[in-house]
Hints:
Largest sheet: 6 strands, mixed
Shape: globular
Helix content: 40-55%
Distance between the termini: 60 Å
Number of strands: 21
Amino acid sequence: MDFNVSKTDLLNITTRARLSNQDVSQRLGSISGKFSLWWARCWGGIPQWAANHFQATRKLERALYELKSHQPAQVPKESIETLQQSRCYVTQLAARVRTAELIRYITPQLPYVKGQPALYHLEPANTSKGIEACRSECHLNLGLLLAVYERTSNKKLKEQISFFALNYLFKAAPIAPQDLALSPEIINRQLSQLQLGLWNPGLSYNRESDVFNAHFEKEINAAVASACGKRFVLLDSLDIDDVLSTQFALFKIDALDKLSHWLVQFDQAPESLGEAMPIPPLIDCTAMLEPYIYTGNDPEKNLRFERKVNELEVLLNELIEKATQGKSERLKVWLKLNMICICKCKVKKISFLKTIPLFLAEQFLECPLSPEEAHLKKQSYFKEIILERPYSLFCHFLSHTGSRLGSVAGRKILSTLAPLKKLVINCFGTLTQYAVTGKNILYFRQPRELTQRSLFVRLRKTFESDKSYLHTLGAPTLQLIEGVLGEISQKQWIAANQDLDKRELIQTCLYRLFVHLGNSEKHQADFAKFAHEMELIHYELMTLVTLFDVLRNADFHQLYLKRLSGTIPDPLKPYVSSGLTKSSMNTFAGIQTTVGTGKAAYTQGIHFEFKEMLGENRSFEALQKAGKLDRVDLYLSEFNHNISLYPDPVYTRAPVIAEIEALLKNRPVNGNPLTVALDTTIDTVNSDKVEALLNHFSREIEEGRLIVAVFQSGQKFWLNGMDNMYGSPVYIVNNEAKTKRSFDFLFNRDAYKTDPLSKQWFCLLNKYVPHSDNYQRTIFKNAQAVLANVPHALQPEQKGIIRVSTVTDDSETFFIDLKCYGSLSSSLAYELQERLFKRFADHSATIYSRGGYGYYHPNLVKFMKGFDESQSYTTLRISLGINPDDNALLIEFLHEAAELSGHVARTDH
């Protein structure tokens, strides 16, 4: 849409935006408005009134840009104030709708002036115009990359530059204080403390999500048949059959005769048609549909695909009829509702699953419905509750098993699909011009020249001798710099710098490393600014790693074993295999494939996502009480607890060794070996607890009665707080000759492999930062210091409306579990968030809200619901960082929470 805005036009647009502000204000304060936002977040989409506000805000932004570029003196103050208010409401709405839907509405189209993109100019005179300080580094880097991209004709270098740009702009774990409903003042102070990218989707986590769906949707739906619907799930790999088999009854299209035999076991439908099967049937129709699904919207090909789907529907209907002869229509409908059909597809470099909609036309036509179901059928959300349930559960499962497209791999694919300028405009709506030009000078003539400069030598001595965060965060960072530069040969360096475009990227990268190191020395006494510089250094290192393919062919197994040399007893070392998967959930999904479904048990304190996946009835206590320990082939455990979503938990060290002994004692003679999957994410890499376990069960392992698989989530402490890589280190102690079981598939199948860049990062950490356990120990120590000073009023036994869960002395933890109870729990949680963030902001200290934990700064995550639905409570998990100065602020905050608890209790009374 072309704009040629007069002052009168702008005032009209301003009036519409002001009316929209009033409408949004009223709706955000009403029950119906809050409900419509909640419902939109649950099921996707955006309420029309919210979409109208996004559109009104965008129009006002563009009108202001247009008028300001031609007649800056004519811009009315009321228009600027209205836009500021509109943006505040956009921020509030953004926290309450789904990211993928939000992108479609708020991604601004680039303003045009005289047919040319209106660029941000980064000359010193104009730097302050339009660029926030917290995003200046991002803009400068983007400007440089765009300039080199336009100049070079090297296709591979273009793809690398595109990836560098997206890596900077997306920022793997965005900072999102606005999601916590904080005041604008605190939000601005929080955002000023760290370098941000241009895209801030909210509490996104560096794991799989639907973050790329909006960007790939057009490409995918333009290529495949319209009859297969618009739903798809992005994957890292199509080779996931063994993962799917852990939670679904998987049937290939060429073996559907087995389906009818499987369906015979069902005698009647449950009371509710919306109830899901424990193990739903999953029909892989790829062999039948994949040759026909790529239609490119050709009407004739679309019709041909529809015929194939109809054939499939008829075939499945016949199988269901055959298996349910003489049984109720409700049962037949229930079986169809729980049947998920998929087709594996690939468009260009994008791997994805299409779920094929079946039976929707005939559903419920002759089926007797309960009164509740008949009432639901009249509602607009009937389809979501009944028909969409299997699909949503399926997507949830793919996320839990680490099968969806990972963030690093997604950015890599996205960077190859279009020219960089188009990608930037489509994703962010903002371009940058690199205004500084000059001679392309070779500043660093050899790779290790940076580490030989007096600044680097001085910092190394300081960081190695210091006992504070300078040592915990700074020393490993210097080790990584030395490691990366040490891996680049002089021959590689000279060859790379002969390409003038690549030289500009390399030399500027090293110069920025030098500048950030200088700033880190300057800000040694300011943790927030020091950590800021360390994080920027990590991003620069990834540029060098990518350009030179540092350690791409390294043997992770050998590097990891060397690091674990003190943990694994010598007699067991011949039985160890190791590797790197995508995530801890992905690792466990792979381990599950060796024992099948329904044979697992888990210990107390296990991560709630594992618990959701396995089910409440699979806990060790439940199986022991039911006398079913003899049926367990897989035991999932961890020594140190994760966050509990039950009320009033007492966090203790899990009795892992005792429970393994009980399982071994109850195993049938000559039965399968017991596999122990040990999640050591909340532990050190060289763990004395794991060492004790392996020594204790050394004989059982050698005899082939026991297999121990130890894994960690690499998105946590492994990254030294820099959440931009993606992997799960795992090692397995298994006498394969006796157990007859191999886990090599975990390390060589695409379903479990992490992306190459992340693998290089983990290899670098193992090779050059072998003593990084100090990072975890510092966080555990800080958590213990805060827990030792919890006010008496917040102790669980006081039964106040605000409580801090108890942690026993023998248990290591990284977080404070603060729970709010009663009808005011949600309001109390928001109030506590505001006070906590304000306290840190008042002291210029660092606290953020990112999905996950293990960061160098304190981190807050809110869980609105728990596993006990009979009580109303909200959980706040405050994860500790590495700066001991933060402990005092957190202790003061807990005392403030105690005062608030007493005040609210007295008011209620």
